[in-house]
Design brief:
With 536 residues, the protein is α/β, with parallel strands linked by helices. It folds into 3 domains: 2-216 and 409-473, Metallo-beta-lactamase, Chain A (4-Layer Sandwich); 224-403, Rossmann fold (3-Layer(aba) Sandwich); 487-534. Helix content is 35%, strand content 20%. It has 17 helices and 23 strands. The protein has helices at 61-64, 67-72, 83-113, 126-133, 224-238, 251-264, 281-292, 294-297, 300-307, 324-330, 351-358, 377-382, 413-420, 437-451, 487-490, 492-511, 517-534; strands at 2-7, 16-21, 24-30, 53-55, 78-82, 136-139, 145-148, 151-157, 165-173, 176-182, 205-209, 242-245, 276-279, 318-321, 338-341, 365-368, 387-390, 393-396, 400-403, 429-433, 455-456, 463-465, 470-473. The strands form 4 sheets. Strands 6-5-4-3-2-1-22-23 form an 8-stranded mixed β-sheet. α3 (83-113) packs antiparallel against α4. The radius of gyration is 24 Å and the shape is globular.
C-alpha cells in the first residue's frame, strides 16, 4: 500500500497524488500547473492506461486540468467526484481544451509567419476533454460508497467551491485498513453562498493544503459589500470601468452575490442602473450549475433567498456576454460599468482584452478578488508593475490597481488549524502539500508546535508505505529549469497519443486473459492485421 507524491509539493498548483493499493492504481486529483514553476515534478509512476480510479476533490483546473491528457494517453478508468463537481468539471475541462486548441492555432500562425514549419500541438483536444468528462461518476456528499474491492470513499464538503470536498479514503489490504484523508482546498468561513467547511472525525493519514498556512486573513471581519461599494462608487464617479479579473467558477458568483445586494439597497449613489457584464461563457454556464445545486451546497442565508423566490446571483442590469462579438462590444461602449471576466490570474481568456483597454486609463480600476500565483500577470500588477505586455505590445499601467482584502476561497492559517482540530484522534502522519515552498515547511512546523502532530512537507517523488507506516524514499526538491524543446519534443504529443493507445491495448489484452478461445483468436487476428498494415 504505497503513497507517492507527484504534484503540488512545495508548490501551489498541479495537485496530484498516487496510491497503489488493493491491486489498483489510484490518483487523487490530476491538476494543471499554473504560474511560475519552482521544482520539477516526477511523472506518474505508471502509464495513464494503467490508472484504474481517479478521485477528484473539486473542479478547479489546478486539480482537474490534466484529466483530458490522461484520457488522451489511454486512461479509461473511473473518475469519482461530487455531483456539483461533475457538473462544473464538465464545463471547465471543455473550456480548458478550447484554450489549448486556440493557443496552438495562434502559435502555429505566428510560427508560419516566422518561417517555422514544425507544428505546435495542443496539450489536449476537445475530444479528449469530452472523453474524460464521460468517465465522471457523481457521488452525493457524506455517503460512504464502496467503489472497488477494499476501496471505500466519502466526500465531505470543505466550502471552497461549489461541490468541493475532502476525500476520505478507506483502503483494506492484507486484512488491514488504512484511512487516508485528502483535504483538497479548505474553504474560508462565513463566505457568501457556500456552507462553512465541515471537519472529518478520524484518519490514519492526512494530506492537508497550506496555501495560506503562514498568514492570517484580516483580523477584523471585512465588510465586503461596503468595500466593494466604495470601489465601484469612486471609479464610476471618475467615469471609469471597474474590471474584475475573476475565476469563472466560484469567485464570479460571489461577486454577483455582493453586487445584487449593493443594487438592492441602492448603495452606489448617482449610478442607480450601472451595468454589470459577466464576460465569460464558462462563468455563465457555471452560474447555472450553482443554481441547480443550491439545495446541496448553499448556506442558510443564500437558501433563505431561494425560498423567497430570489436568485442570489441574478439582478437587473446584469449582462451575460457569450459570443466574441458581445465581448468586443463591451469596450466600444463608453458608459462606466463593472466588467467581470476570466481568467482570475490574467493568464488567458477575455480578461486580457479588457486589461488592454483599461490599464492605461487613470479613471479605471483593476480589482483583484482572488489569489495571484507567483509568475502570473495578476501578481505582477498587484506588485506594482509600471507596464506590462499584452498581445505582444507594451501597455502602461495608469489604472488604479487594488484588491478586495480578505476575499479568499482558502482558509487562512487559523482556518486550517481549526479544520485539523476536527480530527478526534491524532493522525499517524500529516503531509503538508499545496503551498508555496517555504509555506509548506512553516505550516508543518505549526502543526507540530500547536497541535503536537507528526507533520512533514514532502517534495515530488517522495514515497510512503501506508501499511508499514514509514518512508520508502524521501525526495529532495529539484529546481526546475526551462529547456528549449527539440523538434522531436515539439511533435511528441502526437506520438504520446500513439504510445497511450498501445498501452491501453495491452491493458485490454490482459483483461481478456480468460476469454473464450474463439474470441481471443479473433482479437489476435485483428491486432496482427492492424500491425501488418502499419509495419512498413
Amino acid at each position: 500500500m504505497k503513497l507517492i507524491f507527484v504534484g503540488a509539493d512545495h508548490e501551489v498548483t498541479g495537485s496530484c497524488h498516487y496510491i497503489e493499493a488493493c491491486g489498483k492504481h489510484i490518483l487523487v486529483d490530476y491538476g494543471m500547473e499554473q504560474g511560475q514553476k519552482l521544482y520539477e515534478s516526477v511523472p506518474l509512476p505508471v502509464s495513464a492506461a494503467e490508472i484504474d480510479i481517479v478521485f477528484l476533490t473539486h473542479a478547479h483546473i489546478d486539480h482537474s486540468g490534466l484529466l483530458p491528457l490522461l484520457f488522451a494517453r489511454g486512461f479509461r478508468g473511473r473518475i469519482y467526484a461530487t455531483e456539483a463537481t461533475c457538473g462544473l468539471a464538465g464545463i471547465m475541462l471543455r473550456d480548458s481544451a478550447h484554450i489549448q486548441t486556440f493557443e496552438a492555432e495562434w502559435r502555429n500562425r505566428k510560427a508560419k509567419r516566422s518561417g517555422l514549419v514544425t507544428p505546435y500541438e495542443p496539450l489536449y483536444t476537445m475530444r479528449d476533454a469530452d472523453g474524460a468528462i464521460s468517465l465522471l461518476n457523481p457521488i452525493a456528499y457524506d455517503k460512504r460508497v464502496n467503489v472497488d474491492e477494499g476501496i471505500d470513499v466519502r466526500f465531505t464538503d470543505v466550502g471552497h467551491l461549489l461541490g468541493s470536498s475532502a476525500v476520505e479514503l478507506w483502503l483494506t489490504e492484507e486484512n488491514e485498513t488504512r484511512k487516508i484523508v485528502f483535504s483538497g482546498d479548505v474553504g474560508n468561513t462565513d463566505q457568501p453562498i457556500l456552507k462553512d467547511p465541515a471537519t472529518v472525525d478520524e484518519a490514519d493519514f492526512v494530506l492537508v493544503e497550506s496555501t495560506y498556512g503562514d498568514r492570517l486573513h484580516s483580523a477584523e471581519r471585512v465588510d465586503y459589500i461596503a468595500e466593494l461599494t466604495k470601489i465601484i462608487q469612486r471609479t464610476l464617479d471618475r467615469g471609469g470601468n471597474v474590471v474584475i479579473p475573476s475565476f469563472a467558477v466560484g469567485r464570479t458568483q460571489e461577486m454577483l452575490y455582493f453586487i445584487r445586494k449593493i443594487k438592492e439597497d441602492g448603495l452606489v449613489r448617482g449610478h442607480d442602473r450601472f451595468p454589470v457584464y459577466v464576460d465569460s461563457p464558462l462563468a455563465v454556464e457555471a452560474t447555472s450549475i450553482f443554481s441547480k445545486n443550491s439545495m446541496a451546497c448553499y448556506d442558510e442565508e443564500a437558501m433563505e433567498l431561494v425560498k423567497r423566490g430570489i436568485n442570489p446571483i441574478d439582478f437587473e442590469d446584469l449582462n451575460l456576454s457569450i459570443t466574441t462579438d458581445e465581448s468586443k462590444e463591451i469596450n466600444f461602449d463608453d458608459e462606466p460599468k463593472v466588467i467581470i471576466s476570466a481568467s482570475g490570474m490574467c493568464e488567458a481568456g477575455r480578461i486580457r482584452h479588457h486589461l488592454k483597454h483599461n490599464l492605461w486609463k487613470s479613471e479605471s480600476t483593476i480589482l483583484f478578488v482572488g489569489y495571484q500565483a507567483a509568475g502570473t500577470l495578476g501578481r505582477a500588477l498587484l506588485e506594482g508593475a509600471a507596464d506590462v505586455k499584452l498581445f505582444g505590445e507594451p501597455v502602461e499601467v495608469r489604472a488604479e490597481i487594488t484588491s478586495l482584502a480578505g476575499v479568499s476561497g482558502h482558509a487562512d492559517k487559523n482556518g486550517l488549524l481549526a479544520w485539523m482540530r476536527g480530527f478526534r484522534n491524532k493522525p499517524r502522519m500529516v503531509f503538508v502539500v499545496h503551498g508555496e515552498d517555504q509555506v509548506t515547511e512553516i505550516f508543518a512546523n505549526t502543526l507540530k508546535d500547536e497541535l503536537g502532530l507528526e507533520a512533514y512537507a514532502p517534495f515530488s517523488g517522495t514515497v510512503y508505505d501506508l501499511l508499514a507506516q514509514k518512508f520508502v524514499s524521501e525526495a529532495r526538491g529539484v529546481l526546475y529549469t526551462k529547456k528549449p524543446k527539440t523538434p522531436a519534443e515539439r511533435i511528441s504529443a502526437v506520438f504520446a497519443r500513439l504510445l497511450g493507445a498501445g498501452e491501453r491495448l495491452m491493458q485490454v489484452i490482459r483483461k481478456n486473459e480468460h476469454g473464450a478461445n474463439k474470441d481471443l483468436a479473433k482479437f489476435t487476428s485483428q491486432i496482427n492485421a492492424l500491425s501488418d498494415k502499419w509495419d512498413k
